[in-house]
Write a structure and sequence with these properties.
This protein is an alpha+beta fold and 593 residues long. The chain has 15 helices and 23 strands. It has four domains: 3-76; 82-114 and 245-327 and 557-562 and 573-593, D-Maltodextrin-Binding Protein, domain 2; 116-237, Dipeptide-binding Protein, Domain 1 (Dipeptide-binding Protein, domain 1, Alpha-Beta Complex), CATH 3.90.76.10; 330-552, Dipeptide-binding Protein, Domain 3 (Dipeptide-binding Protein, domain 3). A hairpin with a 5-residue loop joins strand 5 (132-137) and strand 6 (143-148).
Length: 593
């Protein structure tokens, strides 16, 4: 084929292919137009369809999730769970963990966490065994037998036996040891029958004796070589104490200088505590130089809780994140009248002071629920007798009593007799609560013409001067009664004797009837018989009015966390808040039923 013909053929082929390509492009354009752009209008329908189905799926998923959560309560519950570091602030100074010497709030708190006693109180403030498995008294009420729980151990792993109990009480009875418990144990014979049994023989029957078996037991194997005269300052007390309580010693830190020293005592759970290992991971006591420092630490979230305030600061009381606990004491706040000096040596004047006081108004302004106190024993104790209760808020009766006693109103509206004004001073601590109560009482007494006034003292001066020396006309103070209604120490005339080691008869009350009744009541074992024996004392007390009963005080406990296990039933001492500390918990979680 000639080159010219080949060239023509190639040209026709290229034109044919170009025409085919162009036709294909046009066809593709028409297809895109037909099947693409022309159908964009249908996207709305597609999106609407997708949104509807996604919405339906979301609703179904939400309903399913809600149902699962709702049904969870049938197989799970939100409950306290173990774990958590607990820090508690107390205003005061740490000096010793040894229960034979612990007196102040910090020391008794640390001691109670570290050491265990033979007996303790349960959540209902009933006396139960701690280290003791059981206890009993002979029919005469003079010999008490205590049996220890089996397999008890100290926190260093050594066995705890009756020898340790014997060593503890013999040390208390040794005057060289200088234990504050010495006076309570004079004349008591303590013997170990075997490794698990101890007997206590009393010089006289005493029904309330078991309540004195709550002090901590100390280890003989660590302290027997320490001279009793050196025991108060032994390194055991502050460096590495070993007890048998729910927590064991971990560390101590000291910060600050001079009188602003603060201590941080950290304790760890004792895994072999007889009642079970504590639920908290650790427990720390922070001792602050003063209450202001403690409150500041609480506000800054440096501590979990704080204890010992007489009222909650306004901002904390209104803080919904804070939990406020009011633990009533088995104690009574009273006004003790000096019955041996005028003008309060006249029973009618004292009766008038009782009648003129408005107890319900005073309780109403406390800011917390308080149980009234109208007898020398408490309302929930078996010895209480409603028929012998003091009647207050009766100004008419107060006026009649004062008139009968010869105290008439003068031109100034005050009572006087033979030119002498009926005047006296009520002494009280300068604490927030006591100042408010004393001020109200003075106002109520002045309303019936009694020229009463109040003086307030710093707590240290109040305790060491006014109370210790009985230097007052009348004094406002709280006294611990305890779980047992044996109030011999406050009202028997022997307790006003200068030779008495306590001298807690703050009214200097003396009544032969009361003395005989108090003695009879504390030497019987049967509660019903004791109630009968105490009847004469209650009658004499109501008639003689050596004091005005007001209310049961409380321990104020404030915490950032809800403290599960912190029971709100009455306690006997500050440290009794720890009666079931091994069960305290601050965390919660879903737990399968």
């Amino acid at each position: 084929m000639s080159p010219h013909l080949l060239k023509l053929r190639m040209r026709r082929m290229w034109r044919r292919r170009a025409a085919q390509t162009l036709a294909a492009v046009h066809e593709s354009g028409r297809a895109i137009e037909k099947h693409g752009f022309s159908r964009f209008g249908h996207l709305k329908l597609v999106w609407r369809f997708m949104v509807i189905w996604v919405g339906v799926c979301a609703i179904v998923a939400g309903l399913l999730t809600t149902q699962i959560i709702g049904l969870r309560s049938y197989y799970q519950s939100l409950e306290p769970v173990p774990g958590g570091r607990f820090t508690e602030g107390i205003a005061g100074t740490f000096t010793t963990a040894n229960p034979l010497y612990a007196v102040n709030d910090v020391d008794t708190s640390v001691s109670r966490l570290l050491f265990a006693g033979l007996l303790k109180y349960d959540d209902q403030n009933r006396l139960v065994g701690d280290l003791a498995e059981s206890w009993s008294a002979d029919p005469a009420g003079k010999v008490y037998t205590v049996r220890l729980r089996p397999n008890l151990v100290w926190q260093d792993g050594e066995p705890l036996t009756a020898d340790d109990v014997l060593f503890t009480y013999h040390t208390i009875q040794n005057p060289d040891a200088q234990s504050p418990l010495y006076a309570s144990w004079r004349g008591v014979t303590v013997q170990a029958i075997d490794d698990n049994v101890v007997t206590f023989t009393l010089p006289n029957p005493l029904s309330s004796f078991p309540y004195g078996l709550t002090n901590g037991i100390v280890p003989k194997h660590l302290l027997q070589r320490v001279d009793p005269i050196d025991l108060r300052s032994a390194t055991f007390n502050t460096a590495d104490p070993v007890g048998a309580g729910p927590f064991r010693w971990s560390s101590i830190g000291i910060s600050g200088v001079s009188d602003q020293t603060e201590a941080q005592i950290t304790l760890a759970p004792f895994s072999h505590y007889w009642a079970g290992m504590p639920r908290l991971t650790s427990f720390s006591i922070y001792a602050y130089a003063d209450q202001n420092a403690m409150i500041a630490a609480y506000r800054n979230q440096e501590i979990t809780s704080m204890v010992g305030l007489d009222h909650a600061p306004v901002d904390i009381a209104n803080d919904k994140q804070s939990h406020i606990y009011n633990l009533p004491f088995t104690a009574g706040v009273y006004v003790f009248f000096q019955t041996t000096a005028p003008p309060l040596d006249d029973p009618k004047v004292r009766q008038a002071l009782v009648a003129a006081a408005d107890r319900s108004s005073i309780i109403g302004q406390l800011g917390y629920p308080a149980v009234p106190v109208d007898e020398p024993v408490l309302k929930d104790q078996f010895a209480y007798d409603p028929s012998e209760a003091q009647i207050t808020d009766n100004a008419a009766q107060a006026t009649a009593l004062l008139d009968a006693a010869g105290w008439q109103l003068n031109a100034h509206g005050m009572r006087e007799k033979n030119g002498q004004t009926l005047s006296f001073t009520l002494t009280a601590s300068d604490g927030y609560e006591s100042k408010r109560v004393a001020t109200m009482l003075v106002s109520q007494w002045r309303a019936v013409g009694i020229d009463a006034s109040a003086q307030f003292q710093a707590p240290a001066d109040f305790q060491s001067n006014s109370l210790a020396l009985h230097q007052y006309d009348a004094v406002l103070d709280g006294v611990s009664i305890g779980a047992d209604p044996d109030v011999y120490v406050y009202w028997d005339s022997s307790q006003n004797d200068p030779r008495s080691p306590t001298q807690y008869n703050f009214s200097k009350y003396s009544s032969t009837t009361a003395d005989l009744s108090l003695e009879a009541g504390r030497t019987r074992l049967d509660p019903l018989l004791r109630k009968v024996k105490y009847k004469s004392f209650l009658q004499a007390w109501q008639q003689d009015a050596p004091a005005l009963g007001l209310y049961q005080p409380r321990l104020l406990y404030i915490s950032h966390e809800n403290v599960y296990g912190l029971a709100g039933s009455p306690i006997n001492t500050d440290a009794d808040r720890f009666r079931n500390v091994q069960n305290w918990m601050i965390h919660t979680g879903w737990v399968t039923k």
